[in-house]
Amino acid sequence: MNVLGKLMRNPPLLTLILVVAVLVIASLTLRGFGSYGHLRYIMELAAVIGIVAAGQTLVILMGGIDLSAGAIMTVTAIMLPLLSPAFDPTGLIGIVVILAIATLIGFLNGAGAAWLGVPPIIMTLAMATFLQGLLVIVAGGSAVSVTNAAVIWLGQGRLFGISASVILWAVVSVAVIVLIHRMPIGGRFLALGANPVAAQLSGVSVTRHTLIVFALSGFFAGVAGILILGMNRQGYVGIGEPYVLTSIAAVVLGGTSILGGRGTYAGTIPGAILLVTTTALITVVNASAGWRSIMFGTLILGLLLISGREARSR
Amino acid sequence: MTSDRSPVVEARVLSKGFFGNPVLKGVSISLLAGRVHALLGENGAGKSTLINLLSGALVPDAGEVLIDGKSTGRYDPKAARAAGIAVVQQELSLTAELSIAENIGLGAYPLRLGLIDYKALRERAAEACALVGLTEPLDMPVGDLALGRRQMVEIAKALYRKPRVLILDEPTSSLSAHEAGVLSGLVRRLASERVAILYISHRLDEVRSLCDHVTILKDGIVTADQSLSGVDGQSLVRLMVGRDPGDLFPPHQTNKAGARRIAVEGFAAGMVRDVNFSANAGEIVGIGGLVGQGQEDFLLGLYGAIPASAGEAEISGRPGLATSVGAANALGLAYVPADRKKEGLVLTHSIAANLILPSLGQKMKNGMRDRGAERNLIASLAKRLDIKGDTGRAVQALSGGNQQKVALAKWLPKTPSILLLNDPTRGVDIETKREIYLMLQGFAAEGKLVILLSSDTPELVHLCDRVLVFSEGRVVRSLERGAITEEAIVGAAMGLERSEVA
Known about the structure:
Order of helices and strands of chain A: HHHHHHEHEEHHHHEHHHH
Oligomer: heterodimer
Number of helices of chain A: 15
Radius of gyration of chain B: 24 Å
Largest sheet of chain B: 6 strands, mixed
């Protein structure tokens, strides 16, 4: 009873246990589901969600939301091939340039929220719409193929049998968890998310941290955009779109309060894996894609109700 | 004079505990029609719990509530309302966006054909407003009112229901002297109309002048249930704290004036205009006046939290005002807000997280937060301010007094040289008040400048070296030690004796 009660109040652990349970049951009942190749594939897909959701976690912890993350991914995926100069065989220049652009877009989100006082949900929605329009004009309807060596390696390369994308995700995970829990700025994000007035009167600058958090979200969306481009070898308009809601779902599944001020990236990680695993499950059993959405909705609501945290603290 | 009447509401040996901690232990209280009954006790003595039991918001573990001598069976807020019990909570329960009339009628709107009958609502709300002296237009949003006026709306809201029993939980803590006077008149009048009144207050003078009977709670037990006539303040305090209180205020100390910390001329911020002010290290400067005369804007302007301007300004030896809170902190300023729940603390976070917030990044190791050093710092702060228990608990679990201590303590690691305190003892129990007073004196003795904004006039009289009285955004009087009396402060605030040179 006591153990169960504790578990209910620890959403990241709850999500992790759910993921493991789903994986174990699916592997035992469905042939090939538990093979190393398939699990690796699941982790690669989860890496993309996990990395966009890293930025999303930070933004949501601070009480905001980033609806432009998908559009920033698309921008990255389409513009990277155009920005990778031919004289650079490694492709690193292109990556640096495109990440700077992604970060700048995020910074502009922050500027709108901090300086113009536009609510983040509106600011980032406007930004997403704006970027989509811009991309249609720049890229037209055609897909862009990638030849950038570094991007292709990130998307498809392996190190000791582990996908490069998963390794990248691991690095991002450590960095984000350290940032939230071991760096002063993480404590400030949380305080701002829970009570911006009190945090501001305690000397925490709302403007500064809003700019930083949205710039970080733009950066991580850029990284995820590079990954998806490397995996697909092609960028096209709309490639990042599904990741907006998926990243938010991963954050919420991981037990982070959508109202801000409470949560951890350690929950978002199993949240991302859970989303991909259930998708894979639906695909393998050949059910309609509609079931996927129904299941996501039920999962999010169910986990929220089980831990009952929103109701308890507000 | 009330002995032969039977009680309207009677609580019999109520007990209530939370998570195994008994808060009330066999408490009985009888509210009689036409009697003003005071309920006294320190914070944490169980007053709020008793009110919540009487209003049906909580269910007792043992004992029962009787209405008109009859057992109530299932007693919930609806039953309490039906019995005519109205509670004016200490925490305001108004909706800022709704108008005064809509707030007053909320939950009991007069209906016509299933729709709100605004005409009837206005009439009835106007009646209630007239009782409490609210003259603001009825369609004004409550959010536009000052805190003291909102409190009056809250009281009008209770009166709107024509209660037989009115429970007032610290109704005057945010009221100006004038509004408090109106309220006293109202309470007397309601009592003469045979309403039973339960009056909770930390202000003893008010209680002694207004109430007939007193129940005192100490640690969940009734230590007194007696008539108030012939009882002096000292003995009331003794019953609350269970020992001889001595003087609530420590004796005044004058420190040697240190270096000049603040000097502003022609200072303006919010509603503050043309303030010339200077103060030195080691001083305690009081800020007084009626509620909402720009005192808070003065502190916030100095703190860089709202835009401010000045002809000449020098803070901590540097020219110019702080343009942001961060800049103010860098100049050695710290601010403790009056509304600790909304502005002072991050309620859902732990005591530890709140204590470390302003000094995050001060204790670092290898570019990361040094958790060990932070833990030591937090433990030493908790010890220094006598904050008991696990610092991992959410700060909202603490009593008001302890919350205030956290809101103060969090600044100490930054060793501020100027403390701006906005009503630091509001809604705080006597014991904690004393602790805070001693701390303030300690700060001044260490060479800090303490600027104390207070709505509690005796506090200004006993603690301050100098008191500035604000009215309509201007300093109307500056009183030096020796000339600081309650009469002088209240008189200046209310525009009396303007001819007298301060």
